[in-house]
Amino acid sequence: MEEPQRARSHTVTTTASSFAENFSTSSSSFAYDREFLRTLPGFLIVAEIVLGLLVWTLIAGTEYFRVPAFGWVMFVAVFYWVLTVFFLIIYITMTYTRIPQVPWTTVGLCFNGSAFVLYLSAAVVDASSVSPERDSHNFNSWAASSFFAFLVTICYAGNTYFSFIAWRSRTIQ
What we know:
By secondary structure, the protein is an all-alpha fold. It is built from four helices and no strands. Helix 1 packs antiparallel against helix 2 (69-92), helix 1 packs antiparallel against helix 4 (139-172) and helix 3 runs antiparallel to helix 4 (139-172). Pfam families: MARVEL.
């Protein structure tokens, strides 16, 4: 007794998508926001980049490895300098409008808040490590880097405030 063979009929539907399709927009050209640099947050980001560059180059040009505390200052200064340049590029090219999946106001608040706290600690460490008795040859560079570290800290505090205002206005809506 053989069972009759039934015709197998299965419908299979497949779709193909790519990760890049989720981030595509209608235009392929980059936008450029000229007005961003004229805003106070834009000005503060440029100031953070310039002053942060001064902080780590003034230390890097010395024999900072003799004072272990300057390792922390160098880490914070270089790390946040690179990330701030990255964020400036994102803001100027308006890349944040092309990636709406990222909560940019929250990212900005977390970035600026952490930069403020860590730069404040680095500035205090920098200032407390400067001593003319320790190394008179590097004293001026280290003292100047300490001064600029506090200025960068003030800039990050300002951007933290503006990021908080933007974040709060997004969460209230």
